[in-house]
Amino acid sequence: MSSIGPEEDRNLHQRFAELRRQDTARAPEFAALLRPRAKRTGFSAFSRLAIAVACVLVITVTLARYHSRPPAKPVPSLSEWRSPTDFLLQTPGRELLIGVPRLGEWPQGIAVPGSSPSPIGTKKAI
Questions:
Q1: Which segments within 1-126 are labelled E, that is strand?
Q2: Residue 98's closest CA among 110, 86, 111?
Q3: What is the pLDDT of residues 59-96, one digit of tens each?
Q4: Closest of 111, 81, 84, 82 to residue 95, by C-alpha
Q5: Which of 26, 60, 68, 107 has the highest Cβ tally under 10 A?
């Protein structure tokens, strides 16, 4: 990496100062930017009318073509729609939530074969 000496530093400073002077000479006065322009640029009334008529025609033709086409296929009802990710909602243990549990009975397929629930508060013999 090369270092810049004091001579190159002064040279750069002078060159940037010259660029700032050139930019200042080209910039308009601030007060001139605030004043409204005497001559208004833009479209004439006829041009605006022609553009508005053209827009109305384009919209009319587009809508006429859209409404003249028969529908490609019937749109299904929202109540018939099925999500492609419904299977993700099928969580393990959902059979426990289907009905009201009955006290003293285990749902089918839940208990491990050979085990039975033990009453609360009884101690097992060691």
A1: none
A2: 110
A3: 999 998 887 777 677 877 888 888 889 888 888 877 77
A4: 111
A5: 107
Q: At which residue do the structure tokens 């033990």 appear?
A: 118
Q: Which residue has tokens 């053209």?
A: 54
Distance, CA of 16 to CA of 8 (rounded, Å): 12
In this predicted model, what pLDDT tens digit does every residue of 5-24 receive, in sequence order? 788 888 999 999 999 999 99
Contact between 93 and 99 under an 8 Å Cβ cutoff? The reply is: no
Tell me how far the alpha carbon of residue 23 is from its chain's centroid: 42
What angle (nearest 5°) sits at the alpha carbon of residue 39, between those of residues 35 and 40?
95
- Whose CA is closest to 107, among 19, 5, 99? 99
Short-list 28, 29, 11, 7, CA closest to 19: 11
- Counting every residue written for the chain, the total comes to 126
Which structure tokens are listed for 27? 């910039």
Can you read off the two tokens belonging to residue 46?
Answer: 């006829």
pTM over 0.70: no
Q: Are 24 and 16 in contact (CB under 8 A)?
A: no
